[in-house]
Structures are given as structure tokens and as C-alpha cells.
Amino acid sequence: MRTQLDVLVRTALARGAAVPAFTCYDFTTALAVVEAAEHIGAGVILLVAPKTAASPVGLRLIRALRGLADAAAVPVSIQLDHASDITAILAGVAAGADAVLVDGSALTYEENIQLVRAARDAIGDPGIVLEAELGGLAGDEDRAFALNASGLTDPGQVADFVARSGAQLLAVAIGNVHGRYAGEPRIRWDVLADITSRTKVPVVLHGASGLAAQDLAQAPASGVGKVNFNTELRTGVLSMLQMQILAHREDGENLLGILDLWRETVRAFTTASLETLSGRANH
Ligand code: 13P
């Protein structure tokens, strides 16, 4: 069922859980995320990466995800991830995205605020939820390289940034990176505590791939209401394909079997993430 992303996240936080968000490059992955969420009975977020949205089939994919979300038995939101172009944001929203991460993190502080406000003005509809990002998160959204964290969010800017940008969720840089961590990830819980003491909007943790389950389990109690996963899901699907393609080719060009395994891989990852973020997993 369609749901407003901030309502989904705040409801989860109120019961001590965070909502996982998964990058969906294709419909099969999205189907499996929703299947797993329905099985558990919890809400999820389907992320559309900017390169996907800008591709020739991006808007069609968003429309298809809209249909999937509307028909789901659990709350599902569709979010345009890391968007910084107003025309692309409007196209994504018109195609069916419920929420947008308006990403001005590469801009100056003032330009970042202006971009979020410009997106709000351009969209008009107050039901479309805007997340903003403060601090510089290292890494590429679609390709994983070993990285060290950089550009921590400055807690001193948080209250002013949220008030003036109108952001309804805040993505932070607290030692997290997109892609693979060069060494042991070191999440700066002290910086996170400082951030959450200065704002009431839910905090979003990007770059969850590679973080320890204990860290993820601890996140909701620290004010993190949404956690974004991409790389680990890709790794799981690609490893499965590497192991299974040849046998399925020899088994009568069995694409259906591969798609079943694809969904099984994504369902397992989604289930584990939902359980970890709701404190239901045993570590
Ligand atoms: P990872 O690829 O590190 O899981 O990050 C995903 C993400 O933050 C999507 O916005």
C-alpha cells in the first residue's frame, strides 16, 4: 500500500525499529523486496538510483514500482535517491516516486539549502517527502570501491539546515561510505548523538553495506530511522549468477530458474535486514 515515507519511518522508530531501503535497478529485485516485506509484515522503501532514473527506461521502472507498491499488503514507499536536478526530480515524482533525496551535499552549505527549497517549491505537493544530505559521503552509488570515510556532518549546522531547508529526513555522514569500506568501518556514534540532540527529524544512514549487524541493530535506538542498502545486495545477486549461470544454461536455457534464484537471494537479504533493524535478529 502507498505510504508517506516520513510516516513509515516515524512509525518504525516509535517501536524501536528502522526501515530498510534497497536500491532496485530492476523489477525482479523490487518484487522480491516486497515479497519478503509482506512475509514479515513490515514496511520497506524501494530506492531508484539517479543513473537508473535518467536511463531510457527509468521513468517506466518508477511507474512499474508504483504499481507494485500500491498493490502491496504492507506499506511501501518509492524514493528517488540522490537526485540533484530539479527537472529529473519532477519527472521522477510525476512517474510515481513518493519521496526524493534532494542531494546537495556536493554544493556549498547555502546552495544545499537552496536546492532543497527549490525542489520543495517546484514539487508543490506537500505529500511528497524530502530527505536532504548534510556532510560529504564518499563513494559511488552504483559501483563499489574500497574507501575511507570523509566529510563528517557538522552537528553545529544541523538545526539551522533542517529549519531552513525544510528537510523531513536527514542523511548524515558519520563514518559511513557508499560501497566498500577500506578497513574496519568506524561509525561515529558520538557525532550521531550530537546530531540527533539537535533535530527531531529522523536520521538516515546511507552506505549500510559492510556495516556490522550489531551496528545496524543499534542504529534505531540512536535515532536512525532509515538505512540504505545497495552494494551488498548487488554482491549477493552477482555471486549467485556467477555460480548458477552455466548450470542453468545447460539445463535447457533455464532463465526462469535464474529469476527464481535472483528473487530468493534478494528475499534472504531483505529478511535479514528487516530482522536486524527491528531488533529481531540474534547476533
Ligand atoms: P551501499 O551501496 O554502501 O549499501 O549504500 C547504499 C546507499 O546508501 C544508497 O543510497
Automatic annotation (TrEMBL):
Zn(2+) 2 binds at residues 103, 133. Keywords: Metal-binding, Zinc. Dihydroxyacetone phosphate binds at residues 179, 207-209, 228-231. It comes from the Bacteria. Binds 2 Zn(2+) ions per subunit. One is catalytic and the other provides a structural contribution. Zn(2+) 1 binds at residues 82, 178, 206. One of its GO terms (cellular component) is cytosol. One of its GO terms (molecular function) is zinc ion binding. The active site is at residue 81. Its cofactor is Zn(2+). This is Fructose-bisphosphate aldolase. It comes from Cryobacterium psychrotolerans. The lineage of its organism: Bacteria, Bacillati, Actinomycetota, Actinomycetes, Micrococcales.
